[in-house]
Queue: 2 jobs
Job 1
Amino acid sequence: MKARYKRFIWVAIGLSVVALAVTLVLRTFNSNIVLYINPTEVAQKKMPKDRNFRIGGMVTAGSLKRQPDGLTVKFSVTDMVETVPVSYTGILPDLFKEGKGVVAEGKLDADGVFRATEVLAKHDENYMPPAAADALKKAGRNMDGTPIKSIEAPAQSPTPAKP
Amino acid sequence: MNLYKYASPATFYPLAGKLIPWFAALAVVFGLIGLYLGLIVAPEDAQQGQVYRIIFIHVPTAWVGMVVYLVMAAYGVAALTLKTRLSSMMMEALAPTGALFTALALLTGALWGKPTWGTYWIWDARMTSTLILLFLYVGYIALIHAIEDKKRADKAGALLVIVGSVNVPIIYFSVRWWNTLHQGASVSVTGSKMAAVMAQGMLVMALACWMYAIAVVLVRVRAIILERQYKGANDMVGLSMGARGMAGTEMTGTEMMGTK
């Protein structure tokens, strides 16, 4: 065998070993890489205890209620299976809307309300002019073209890792 | 053996010189068309309004940042296995451009993140792995300059880049594998989730970035070829670094810049 091929095989072996090692490490730390958990996982008590965590999902349509103090808002986050009520005092990002994705950081109270200290809007990958969005809305479709009723929650955590 | 002809610095040097003006001109043309499409023709976005226009620079720079690294890794494999001299020089020439584009992608992403998400930065998988890409570029540049012996420096650099290439698929698939704040891909091989004119503007801007990157890398690799040949000739003949005129006999008219 030519020395050139031998060296190539060594590089290939080295790279596969590194790739394998990285895959194993990432799988092990899966729960730490995930930025947020979804309401179903909250219902299953898969969140870290006594420490802030993030929940992600969709703002339930019609759930946004501004409180009399003008700064506090209450809404609920859903993944179409479970729903978590959220309370937040502060300024919401511009893209925060009912029916859109959201990521909130905070703690779960004893009464089951998530007290958020930070609320971020999770944007989707659809880009279109306003006229096209209106046309889709009239046709009863989402921005990705699916009928509005079969909407999927944006949270798509593949497998929640063990707590 | 014909393929190896252009792997030789001596034949590649004049070829690169001929190609540079073409790539530079294409970069300007694509850049003007892309900016026209992106800033004037494309309508505002239904959700984000005008803010979304940062994608016309953010997405192309992120693409270039990732692909340049893969190209460097391919040259790294060639440098270690085929031992072609040009490979290491190309790696050295590619690194600053890759680092620049990755930094631009991070910067434009932060500027866009504040008005849309509500934060400049969050440690989600997409952003963290892109930051690691920037560190890999900087690490490579630091490593090859830290080792005195050029051959050993090239070898160490090639190894680092090959090992680091594992990070690129992680960046790309991070938005699918994990929950991230960063949204999924708008444009992929399976199709586009953007209005056609927006996607076109983005693709033309990506072409502009590519043409610019290629032109700049070719300019830089020519400088590196001259620099190394000059140093090599001096080392062989045992002349002091101050001696002139040994290396560039085939390349008359080119300035011997870059050596102390």
Job 2
Amino acid sequence: MQNLINAADLLFRYDVMFTIVVTSFFGLFVGAMPGLTATMATALLVPFTFFMEPVPAIAAIVTATAMAIFSGDIPGALLRIPGTPASAAYVDEAYAMTLKGQADQALGAGLVFSAIGGLFGTAVLIWAAPALAEVALKFSSFEYFWLSCLGLTCAVLIATDRPLKGLIALCIGLLIACVGVNNPAGYQRFTFGVSDLLGGISFIPVLIGMFAVPEVLRSATDHGRGARIAQVRIDSVFRHMGRYAWKYKLGIVRGSTIGTLIGALPGAGADIAAWVTYAVSKKFSKESEKFGTGHIEGIIESGSANNAALAGAWVPAMVFGIPGDSITAIAIGVLYMKGLNPGPTLFINKPDAVYAIFMVFVLANLLMIPMGWIAIKSAKQILRVPKEILMPFILLNCIVGAYAIDNTVFGVTLMLFFGIIAFAMEENDFPVGPAILGLVLGPLVEENFIKSLIKSDGQLLQFFDRPIAGSLGVVTLAIWLLPPAFLLWRRWKR
Amino acid sequence: MFRRNLLGIASAAAVASVMGLAAPAIAAYPDRPITLIVPWAAGGGTDAVARIFGILMEKELKQPVNVVNRTGGSGVVGHQAIAEAKPDGYTIGLITVEINMMHWQGLTKLTWQDYTSLALVNADPAGLQVDVKSPYKDAKSLLAAVKANPGKFKASGTGQGGIWHLALAGMLQDQKIDPATVPWVPSQGAAPGLQDLVAGGVDIVTCSLPEARALIDAGKVKSLAVMDAQRNGALKDIPTLKEAIGSNWTTAAWRGMAGPKGLPKDVADKLTAAFDKAYKSKEYKDFMDQRGFGMIWGNQAEFAKFMDKSNKDLGAVMKAVGLAK
């Protein structure tokens, strides 16, 4: 109790509150700008944290990232440009809602359930951090291999109405992920001697290009369609949210739980959490046929998952100094610099600071509601802009975003190239989502497969040797092989 | 006549004023913002060192310093951007040990000689870490077991051919053990490698001590030796490799400030002086101590000599392991 009072004393000060408010605006801005990610928001904050007290320094990072992950939904819903990779999973869904004139509902759901997911993840962080971190540390490359294989399955789940085209799109994504020298053997693949390609195809320019550019191209080729962006009032952001929360309570709990767990696993972050929960939501929904047409259920579940993952990532970071995602990888450095060395002893030596950090999580997620509301209200004005002006503006934004991520013009080339590929794919009814998922998961699958092979001296049976890996492997193979087996069996009987 | 004179005086004055403006502009380097290129991603250790230096340089040079991350190509892209910049002192960078490794692998033609060395600012020696539950209590017994069971022990800590891979290979070679005895499991850096160590996936991780410190403190990992001439200031009970097994092998990941080749001497000297001040500042020392990063200073000539030695050492190991092309 005394610790709580001390923590509150550390937190509720003018300078800390000021930091939190300023960084929330910063986070909202960075998240809403395509090409600027929550990870980049953290990196940009680091030089400022040099001169801050420990608690406001951490508060700045926690607040900015929570806001950024939410506000990535805003350009996603309004312009079909995911503001951060974590919004990519449901950007089509949210944009479809905007086209139906339900932008306020899509963004309201993103906002409210981001906050709920974030609070759920925080609760787990507070009460289960040491135990959960122990579990997360038990995962080696064998477990990760099976998990990333399960993740690949999501690609087909997302595109249930046309699984074969989903599979092909996934393979395109996997193929793109092969480029570069960042593979386990350090071997140059598909680089054609171009040093820009050595590092592989940069993810963010592809993400921006594949979602936003086809939309711009379509509006240029087909005058009727682009004009359909409906003019809607924005005064009802929170309407129906209570009803949704009740109707989809199971999905919210499921999304937040999966999100927190994926966040807590080192190596997988908010973006993968959003993909997996979106697919799970579709799989178990009573109305899965509505997914992709502007149905709010998936947005609610994966919107809560990506913010839950954010808190989950702090679990191994605080307990063992092992980052749960790219954001905490940076934050750990700040923890060290501020004398809050991660480790189980942190909870014993500096309980007041730890409690203060927990309170920051709660505060940031609560503050997200009013701040997000302001952001939605102001961003929504963009839909009043006539299409002829809006579309070039979107393209300009894409160019800036693609340039900003690595500060290189090559990013712009990539963005335009993959934009045209995605246009061709979508015109022929191939979904873009699975390609993006392949790009995210491809390196994970490959790396963990090779690592496991080296460890087991090339024996495939060892992939089932460890208890967790074995169970995951059996589940994965069952999901992959049982449906076709049943199909064959039924056909054979007839 | 008078009029012409007036005109002459006026034009002379104009010329003089232009020259007057121009002359100090050369003398008063820097007169516009400086770009500091980091070849690695925002948020990593190199980035953190560059950013604290950026702030301290601003104070010293009275010009804004923009830290720019040019990532990609396992560091090639950023290192290339530094080497190919205009040698005017307005684009410099923080180069890392990889500059002495990439050219052996055939990833680039760049070597340390393509830069104007300015200052060596940091070096972190490799450590020899095992799981705390490992039966091996010291480096000697571990290496004996490694020698007796070729292929049984797996090691990790960075990508294939990365600096910690070479640290291990060099140590084994120094002990007359074939480096292939311990297969390397590539990982995306020290943290995933350490996690794999704790999860029981690998047996040895040869990352630096600051990288392993959280897990050492948490009682999950133990460090048997540090591959340096002296012990680490923060973790004094870990012996050096020399003390543990009598080997002279040392490896460190280092970082240093450099500009493109052919930087004018006065500009280079001014920068080195600014780095010297920044290096000696309390802020830098506090920052490095908190992060557990190793401090080491080398001026222009010392840094060049240091890189020359590092380049030869690493080249020899990479040839032995078969990583060099």
